[in-house]
Amino acid sequence: MPIKWRLAVLMADREIDYKELAEMTGMHPVTISKHKNIRVMPERLERETLEKYCKALNCQPGDLLTYVPDEPKGQTSAS
């Protein structure tokens, strides 16, 4: 899971629910809900959609996406 999708984190930080974000972006609430509830970057994300999220949440694309490299095989992280 090298690229994490952080829409839910940004929405929580800004105390915005999916209905509010739908109104702010003009997107359908079901689409917002689907995007909010996934942890990895959507397989297909239109530039226009990303721009709407950035405008509504006053953020940069990098705030929504985080690169997390996979660990090499045979290694596990210490907890």
UniProtKB/TrEMBL annotation:
This is Putative transcriptional regulator. GO terms for molecular function: DNA binding. Residues 6-64 form the HTH cro/C1-type domain. It comes from Nostoc sphaeroides CCNUC1. Pfam families: HTH_26. Gene3D superfamilies: lambda repressor-like DNA-binding domains (1.10.260.40). PANTHER family: DNA-BINDING PROTEIN, DNA-BINDING PROTEIN-RELATED.
